[in-house]
Structure formats: structure tokens, C-alpha cells
Amino acid sequence: MQDSLFSLDEAPAEGSVRPASQGAQLAALAQQLPDTLRLGTSSWHYPGWATLVWDRLYSEAQLSRDGLSAYAAHPLFRTVGVDRGFYKPLTTEQYSRYAAQVPADFRFVIKAPSLVTDAQLRSGDGKALEANPAFLSEEAAASTFIEPALAGLGNKLGALVFQISPLPGSWLKQMPRLIAQLHRLLASLPALQAHAPEAVIAVEVRDPEWLTTEFIAALRDTGATYCLGLHAKMPPISEQLPILRALWPGPLVCRWNLNPVHGAYGYEEAHAQYSPYNKLIDPDPETRAALARVIAGTVGAGQRAYVTLSNKAEGCSPLSAIALAHAILATR
Q1: 312 vs 15, 67, 262, 283, 294, CA distance in Å?
Q2: Distance CA 57, CA 69 (A)
Q3: 204 with 163: CB under 8 angstroms?
Q4: Is the dihedral of CA 86, 88, 93, 98 positive or negative?
Q5: Does position 12 have pLDDT exceeding 60, yes or no?
Q6: CA-CA distance, 2 to 84, in Å (whole number)?
């Protein structure tokens, strides 16, 4: 959990984390990718990335606090996923400190607080306690997520992702009501373009029951898009593509979260097998090739793409990013 690692109220030590030296081949690879593609990882606080992203081994706490500038120096990384706010909403000041650590051309993919996107309130160990009264709340979405992110990140804001947690079984029979509430939430959000011209609202789900014509209509009507979530709880890319086609033309937001070999509840298993996240353990060339085709088609038509990769996709997200970049170029 990112929130447990450090407080952004602590002033980072300037330049205390240095980037790894990257070869000319990686720089050349990055230069061949389209400007409209923003590729990155899910967070950046992993000591195992020493020599891949960092010049040497650093502690997780130091990387969380001081590593973002070094991360943004990597030739391929023009975005990063910030999941920390899922556990506790971030403030404008915290977002501002993130923005100050990256170059002008960098953009953030921000995950909405669970206060808004989880139907249940949970204990510290994730156990469901009771229904969440703020689930899909219009006021909570604006005040705890959209407004502070806009104010703090400004034009460095890329994608704001409402990742809706798995629903209780009984709620899956209430999809029309839930989609109507989601529609109201999305319609209520303040406009982004005045402060963040490239920003997009995206909705990611973990129950395929959401994927209906009513869901598509709610996204289209409010100018939001579908976040292509690559996770074992969801169908493969080929079965999610009709959603993207129905919303075309528009930007792509994709989060490659978890290798399907671990099953729907395999995060802990993936963590145990892949840590310290310094090599590809379970390469998934089929998913990679399919995602590369979607990216190439999107940016080839002049649309933007925000793509973040988790360590739990193949074992090491920096290496996954390199492999995906090669796969994108191979589609030409």
C-alpha cells in the first residue's frame, strides 16, 4: 500500500535518488514511439529496479519519497500510475509535489479513492464491513478526487481512473440502477480541459456484468472512456474491444494489472513469485501483441494513449515496457 510507505508532507532530499544510465538503444527505441503514446508503470517505489531504473539499490521508503524524478528520466516513461490515493484521498499539496518532480511533458494516471469506487467499507486487511454510503457519490468524487487532482497537477494530469471494485454478488443483479448512478456521477464532474487539455476520465471495472449497452451509453454521453483493464477477473482484450469500438474515436486508457496465470485473486501469489520485480517471470506475448495492436491503431489514428504496466503482469514492469515498445514498433 503506497500510503503506508511515507508522508508527502516530508520534504524530499533533492537529487538523492539517481537514475540508472540507459544505453543508446533504449533512447532510440523511445524516440521511435509516437508522441501521443504515454507509456509507464504502476507506481515507482521498487528497490528491485536497481540498474533498470535506479543507479543502485535504494530502500522502498526512499524511492517512494524521492524516486519520481529519477523514474521520469527513463527514456520510455512519460506517465506513471498513482494508486496511493485509492487508500486515502490525496490533497492538492500532495499532487503539487508530484507535479514539481517531473518534466513539463510528463502526465499522471490517477486512481480514484476507494471511498468513491468500492461498494463496501473495509477493514485494514481488506475484509468487507458494511455498505459504503459514498459509493459512486457525485460530491465525494469531485471533492476528494477531481478537484484536488486538477488543482495540484494542472496540465500534467493525464487520466483519472474510476476503478470500480468487485461488487457483492447480490449487487450484480442491480446493474441498471448502478449504471444510472455512474452516469449521474460522470455527468456531474467539472470540465477538465481548461486546466488539463489532455486529461480524460476513464472507468475501469472488475465485473464483466458492467459491460452492457447502457454502460457504453453512459460513457459516451458524458465524454468518459473505458479503461481497458487487463486482469484475470475480466475477459481478454479481444472480448473487451467492442466497448472501445463503440466509443471510437477517442483516447485509450489501459492498465495491465495481473497475469491471468494467477487467477482472479492472485495478487499475493504474483507478489510472492515475482518479487523483487527485476526480471520477466511469466512473459505473456499473446497479451502483449494484442495490446500493441490496440495501441498502434489508436495512436495511428491520432488519438492519445495512456498505458501503465504492473509488475504483476509479467514480473517486471520496466522490462514489460521495453518488450511492449518493441511489439508496438513491430506492428508497422
Answers
A1: 29, 20, 9, 11, 21
A2: 16
A3: yes
A4: negative
A5: no
A6: 5
Structural domain harbouring 102 = 2-330
| Cα-based angle 167, 109, 94 (whole degrees, multiple of 5) | 100
What's the pLDDT score for residue 280?
Answer: 98
DSSP string, 147-199: HHHHHHHGGGEEEEEEEEPPPPGGGGGGHHHHHHHHHHHHHHSPP-TTT-TT-
- CB-count burial class (<10 Å; 0-12, 13-18, 19+) for 145: buried
Angle formed by the axes of helices 213-222 and 175-188, nearest 10°: 10
Cα angle 192, 195, 201; round to 5? 25
Cell numbers that stand for 330 in this block: 513491430
Task: Report how far residue 110's alpha carbon sits from residue 157's, in angstroms, rounded to the nearest whole number.
Answer: 8
Share of the chain above pLDDT 70, in %: 95
Residues 6 or more apart in contact with residue 32 via CB below 8 angstroms: 329
Instruction: Answer positive or negative: Cα dihedral of 167, 212, 256, 93.
Output: negative
Number of domains in the chain: 1
In this structure, the dihedral spanned by the alpha carbons of residues 128, 132, 138 and 139, taken in order and rounded to 10 degrees, is: -110
Encode pLDDT of 19-68 as tens digits.
999 999 999 999 999 999 999 999 999 999 999 999 999 999 999 999 99
What tens digit of pLDDT does each residue of 180-205 get? 999 999 999 998 988 899 999 999 99
CATH number at residue 104: 3.20.20.410
Three-state SS at 46: coil
Q: How far is CA 307 from CA 121, 140, 190, 249, 262, in A?
A: 29, 26, 24, 17, 21
For residues 183, 188, 190, 192, the Cα torsion angle rounded to the nearest 10 degrees is: 10
Per-residue confidence (pLDDT) for residue 6, from 0 to 100: 35
* pLDDT at position 92 over 60: yes
**Cell reading at 22:** 540507459
